[in-house]
Amino acid sequence: MGDFNLALVIVAVVVCVLVLLVNVYLLVNYQHPDDVNQAYFPKLVVVLGLSVAAVSILMLPADVANRQACQHAIYSGACTLTLPMKDLWLVVYVADAVLVFLVIPFAMFYYEGDQDKTIGKRLKSALLWVLTSAFVCGLVLGILYGLVGKVDFTVRHLSSSATSFPSSWSTFSSSQPCIGSTNHLCDAYGAPASSETTWTMQTTFPEYVVALATIVGSVLFTIFGGVGIACLPLSLIFSFIQRPKAVITRSQYIKEATELGKKAGGLKKAIEALHQEERSGSKGRKWRKNVKAAEKELLLLEDDMKALEEMYPQGEKAETLWALTVLGYLGKLVLGIIGLIVSVAWVAHIIIYLLISPPISPFLNEVFIKLDNVWGLLGTAAFAFFCFYLLVAVIAGEMMLGLKLVFITIHPMKWGGTLMNSFLFNVGLILLCSISVIQFCATAFAYYSQATAAQEIFGHTLQSLRGIKYLYKYNVFQYGFVILAIITLICYAAFGWKKRKPSGRFQLSIGDDI
Questions:
Q1: Dihedral sign, CA of 338, 339, 340, 345?
Q2: Where is the chain membrane-spanning (predicted)?
Q3: Is 246 helix (H, G, I), strand (E, B) or coil?
Q4: Is 509 left (phi over 0), alpha (psi -120 to 50) or beta?
Q5: Which of 124, 145, 267, 484 could form a disulfide with 149 if both were Cys (CB 3.0 to 4.6 A apart)?
């Protein structure tokens, strides 16, 4: 058994190294050409943030494997090489909170600072903003921890009478297992309801920070995840339905390109006007609204350009490009169908296992256990896939709402075209929601992940924390997640299949700045 535990430690180290290498690969291939060979600090933060998020997701399967490593232990020394999961959970999630609330904001303030200023002034400005935010957050956390940083456990006081030790064991049998001839059960077994009371204790500060970060992440996860789990597979399927059926003619290409050129010209003038307003210091509410509208219009214009290039491939390899385009849409259809199955399974599992009391069936818990019986890591891999799918759904939901709602800033992730501010924003969102994803998965798969360190943190402490325990007691986030998923499914199925109509030249909103 000790050899198995040592192998688990080695696997954990290897996986961490692989995660780091994969994240470096993603950064190199997703970064914008303007950020090549510069912005090294934001890139370091991006790689570190993605690695922490990925490791945090993989820690729950590792926690389960760590528990299984000792389930057949005969002597106490058999598990000396297991991972200290509770300490690792706290380290990872405190690092998660530091990245989300301190490091990433500092990197974004520095990256988006005025390029005309010197590096020292940009660092000073970013540090000033972050220290101010850290002071306010630390003050609020300290006050809340001192006032309501306690957990209330419901306990029942049990007691039993004592009797003399028997001098002979001959009176015991299967029909008489207890001492005495009248009471075959302990007195404590029939304790009255009045013996139930509340046991209050102070939680640790790291656990309290994790709990509050989980609440903030749960709100975002419920909104973005609920929308994304429906629109992610449907967007892939409708992308296949709306695919270009054939190559257009050259005259059609020239006509469409001319229209896009006119739209690009109007958008360029609007952006120049916004730059002029920025230089003059007129950065009010209308200006910010126009900036967000211009960003979204630019993103839609790029999508139109890409669609036009797909419908009229050029060059010596035009036929090959068209064949790859067709295969790409077929791949989207396959991924969309798989994603739809996973999304339906998630929603069904939440309803069957979490919202209905008592649960109708363990459902996915039982599936993972049976997969583990087939091969040791198969159930773990399936479990990790379902957790990662939720994170991808969060990003898809943020993108969808960002296109529809003006007050949400959109940060697209594009292969070879992602600026560092978009990278940092999405990494922060992933980190913030990863805590909630783990808590959500630990609750949804409580049967599969029972007796783990994650269950102790997220299943007991978090759900007993004073002031917020009722959010989990009445499944507020689960109900919100399912309701938003169903609403998004209905709306997307009813209106998502329609192609977006051209909006013509981009116009700025007219109004006085505040």
A1: positive
A2: 6-28, 40-60, 90-111, 123-148, 208-241, 333-356, 376-403, 423-448, 476-495
A3: coil
A4: beta
A5: 145
Question: Hey, what are 232's tokens?
Answer: 């992610």
Query: Averaged over 69-96, what is the pLDDT?
Result: 66
Q: What is the identity of the amino acid at 421?
A: N
Q: Distance of CA 313 to CAs 204, 269, 318, Å?
A: 61, 29, 5
DSSP tag of 302? H
- Relative to beta strand 150-156, strand 196-202 is antiparallel
- Residue where the block lists tokens 């209050």: 200
**Token pair of 6 as six digits:** 């040592």
**Which residues fall within 8 angstroms of residue 111, CB to CB, at 6 or more apart?**
39, 42, 420, 421, 424
Q: Residue for token digits 């993108």?
A: 399
CA 441 to chain centroid, in Å, comes to 11
Q: What is the pLDDT of residue 513?
A: 44
* Buried b / exposed e along 456-474 (16+ C-beta atoms within 10 A): bbbbebbbbbeebbebbee
**Residue 350, C-beta contacts closer than 8 angstroms, at least 6 positions apart:** 444, 478, 481, 482
Residue in 244, 447, 231, 200 with CA at minimum distance from that of residue 339: 231
Residues 190 and 159 sit within 8 Å (Cβ to Cβ): no
Q: Please give the structure tokens belonging to residue 158.
A: 């049990």
Q: What does DSSP assign to residue 203?
A: P
Residue 161, both tokens: 């009478």
Scored b (16 or more CB within 10 A) or e, 213-222 reads bbbbbbbbbb
* pLDDT tens profile 385-444: 888 898 888 888 877 776 565 555 556 677 777 778 778 888 888 888 888 888 888 888
